[in-house]
Every structure is written in structure tokens, then in C-alpha cells.
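Example 9 (inverse folding). The structure is encoded as follows.
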């Protein structure tokens, strides 16, 4: 059987497994998730060995540090993946959840209840933890999944899927509910994009090139996002220590991910007191600051700071590294205009003690997640109480932000009568 035909057969198998999975009780699906979490903690050797081989090959190929960081698995990261799976298992069951109900004047009883989407496919790059995140959310929400990771993580993902298959089989669920494309031929991406008869939703995770390609060519509904150009605006009456702490966390805690800070905007009335403190904190972590002329003039010719003049390309750039752009703005209006011009609709934050300014920012900024006095690093399914995420959507239809359990469901209308007919 050709690779293309095999992939189509995987689609058919996933479709059949999805129907069976949707009929299984929540206890069975939760049992499978607990088995997966247990295996991630107790069966690490094979996965770590596979990941080490992937990592060595990626290093030898000269792949950048941001990519290598996302690829790397450690015992601590595997334990974190297990914890995320357990958090998903502990959440309420979305399948058949009542959304609303009412009784019409003619006596018809109407309900709106959640149902699984069916088969969710994902094409993703470099992050093997995505494999277990998608599996956990798909199984919990009664969906089957088709996974197509990048060639750089083939061994890691193969090991994880093998672990998953053993775990769900022990729980009595169909292993066909988790399909893995282990052929790295890029032509198969085109095949997958054409499988609208078998795939109900496609979620790409990776760089802008991949996401744009999938969005243009997929035959089924697609949720795109993940490219994060994230700003933190420090307003004129912001607390200096709070601002420095939030900016530091948003940039440094994990700089290679989509919700990390890229640009700091500072109100002119706060610049003289806030920018030196922010720069000192960032400099201590080795962050290169690409500054406009006003912020450079505040910092002065300090050889101890890693600064450089910003150019136009630095605004609206997702750095995915220890680099941050810094700009002084004259007003909240200027900050809003800058974010509207250069933001990607992912995550934006304001640091201020002015509630009116905060409310304006939260209302007017058009992004999947907006924050007041906290870090953009919280745009994450686990951090926002969803257990994990399939991806982060910067669209507005049908879901936005981290894609958790409810975002992987549709709904149906259930109508009960006593013989009524339409007049």
C-alpha cells in the first residue's frame, strides 16, 4: 500500500474509532489518561533515548537554539507532561454537557448539548510534548486524532505514541483513536490537507510558513495561530518593580515560545524611572535590547548593557530568543496604535495602577488574550485551567486562544415533544 493510501486508511480508521470513543463512558476515557500519565512517569528510558537521538541529529544539522529547546525532553519535562495529562483527566466531561435548555410555548422541550467534533488532525513542529497534549484533550473530549510531527522529532514522537497505544489499550479504548504519521515525506502533508471526508478539524502548530501554508491549502476547517508577537505596555503610573518583574518573566522565563514578550512599550512619563530598572533586570539575564532613540538616550552610553539601535524590522518581530525591542510612547493611544499595527493577535499586557487605562486596554486591544498587571506567559491551556491545549488560535472562528476541551466540541439540538406538528 502506498504511503498516501495508508494515510487515507488511517483517516478511515480514526473516523471509526471516533464513533466508538464517543459512546464510551467518561470513566473509561479518564482511565486511559491516567494510564498515559503513569507511563510518562514510569517508562521514561525509551522516550529519553529516542529524544537524545533526535536532539543529536538536530544539533548536527545546525538547527537553532530555540528549536533545540522546544525539541528537548528531560525527566522533569516528561513529569510535567504527565501532570498536564492528569489535569485534563480531572476536568469535567464535556461530552453531552448541557449548554442550555428551555421549553417553547407549544410544549417542545429543547436542549443544546456538546458532542465531539470527530477526528482532529494536527501538523506540528519540534515540540514532542504537543503529542501527549493533543492525545489527552482528544480522548477526553471523545475525539480521535491524527498526528503528524516534524521529521526532527520522529523518534521521540514514535516512542510517545507507542506508550500511548499501550496505555489506552489497557483501558479498553481503541488504539485506532490515536493515529501517527511516521512517514516524513512532505508530500503526505498535501494528502492530509485533502482529507476532508475523514478529518473534521485541522490544527497546525509551528512557524508562520507552516501555518500560512495549511491555512491556504486545507480542505477542512482549520484553526490557525501560534505566531505570537507579544507586547507589554508600561503605563505612566505603573509600579516600577512590578513592571520590571513582569517584563523579566514574560521575556526570560522561556524565551523560545509563542507567548514570550517581544516588545516593551513604556509611557514617556514612566520611561526615566522604569526603563533603567527593566534594562538592568533584562541585562542580567543576557537579553539583547533593541531600543528606539528615546530609550537609548535614557540608558546612555553604558558599556555594561547589551543594547543596539532598533530598526523597523524589530517592531512586529517574534524573536523566540533572548532579544527584546524597547520603545517609548507618548500615550496609551500611541501604545494601542503600535499594538494594532505590529501585534499578531496573540497576547498583550498592560502594567498600570490606573483602572480606567487598564479597562480601555483590555477592551480595545484585539488579541486572543489580554492581561492587566501580569505576564503574557500565562497564555497556555494548563496555566489557564484547561489542563493542556491543542494549540493557541488567533482566529475568531470557531475558537480563540488556548484550545481546550470545550473548543474540541460542537453541539447538537435535542428536541422532545408529545405529538406536536408544525402548523
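The amino acid assigned to each position is listed next.
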Amino acid at each position: 500500500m502506498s504511503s498516501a493510501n495508508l494515510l487515507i486508511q488511517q483517516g478511515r480508521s480514526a473516523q471509526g474509532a471516533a464513533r466508538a470513543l464517543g459512546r464510551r463512558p467518561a470513566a473509561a476515557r479518564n482511565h486511559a489518561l491516567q494510564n498515559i500519565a503513569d507511563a510518562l512517569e514510569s517508562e521514561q528510558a525509551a522516550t529519553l533515548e529516542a529524544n537524545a537521538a533526535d536532539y543529536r541529529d538536530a544539533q548536527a544539522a545546525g538547527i537553532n537554539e530555540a528549536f533545540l529547546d522546544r525539541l528537548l525532553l528531560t525527566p522533569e519535562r516528561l513529569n510535567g507532561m504527565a501532570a498536564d495529562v492528569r489535569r485534563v483527566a480531572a476536568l469535567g466531561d464535556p461530552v453531552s454537557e448541557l449548554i442550555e435548555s428551555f421549553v417553547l410555548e407549544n410544549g417542545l422541550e429543547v436542549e443544546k448539548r456538546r458532542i465531539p467534533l470527530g477526528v482532529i488532525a494536527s501538523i506540528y513542529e519540534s515540540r514532542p510534548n504537543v503529542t501527549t497534549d493533543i492525545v489527552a484533550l482528544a480522548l477526553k473530549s471523545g475525539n480521535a486524532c491524527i498526528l503528524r510531527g516534524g521529521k526532527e522529532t520522529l523518534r521521540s514522537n514514535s516512542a510517545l505514541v507507542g506508550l500511548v497505544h499501550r496505555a489506552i489499550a489497557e483501558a479498553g479504548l481503541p488504539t485506532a483513536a490515536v493515529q501517527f504519521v511516521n512517514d516524513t515525506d512532505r508530500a503526505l502533508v498535501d494528502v492530509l490537507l485533502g482529507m476532508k471526508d475523514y478529518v473534521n478539524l485541522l490544527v497546525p502548530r509551528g512557524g508562520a510558513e507552516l501555518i500560512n501554508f495549511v491555512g491556504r491549502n486545507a480542505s477542512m476547517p482549520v484553526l490557525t495561530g501560534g505566531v505570537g508577537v507579544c507586547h507589554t505596555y508600561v503605563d505612566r503610573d505603573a509600579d516600577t518593580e512590578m513592571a520590571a518583574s513582569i517584563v523579566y518573566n514574560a521575556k526570560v522565563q522561556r524565551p523560545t515560545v509563542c507567548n514570550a514578550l517581544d516588545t516593551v512599550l513604556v509611557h514617556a512619563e514612566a520611561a526615566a524611572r522604569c526603563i533603567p530598572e527593566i534594562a538592568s533586570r533584562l541585562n542580567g539575564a543576557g537579553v539583547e535590547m533593541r531600543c528606539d532613540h528615546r530609550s537609548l538616550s535614557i540608558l546612555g552610553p553604558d558599556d555594561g548593557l547589551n543594547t543596539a539601535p532598533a530598526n523597523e524590522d524589530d517592531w512586529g518581530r517574534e524573536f523566540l530568543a533572548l532579544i527584546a525591542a524597547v520603545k517609548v510612547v507618548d500615550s496609551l493611544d500611541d501604545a494601542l496604535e503600535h499594538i494594532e499595527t505590529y501585534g499578531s493577535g496573540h497576547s498583550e499586557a498592560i502594567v498600570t495602577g490606573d483602572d480606567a487605562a487598564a479597562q480601555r486596554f483590555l477592551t480595545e486591544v484585539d488579541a486572543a488574550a489580554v492581561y492587566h498587571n501580569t505576564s503574557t506567559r500565562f497564555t497556555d491551556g494548563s496555566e489557564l485551567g484547561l489542563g493542556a491545549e491543542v494549540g493557541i488560535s488567533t482566529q475568531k472562528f470557531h475558537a480563540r486562544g488556548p484550545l481546550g476541551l470545550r473548543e474540541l466540541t460542537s453541539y447538537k439540538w435535542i428536541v422532545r415533544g408529545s405529538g406536536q406538528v408544525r402548523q
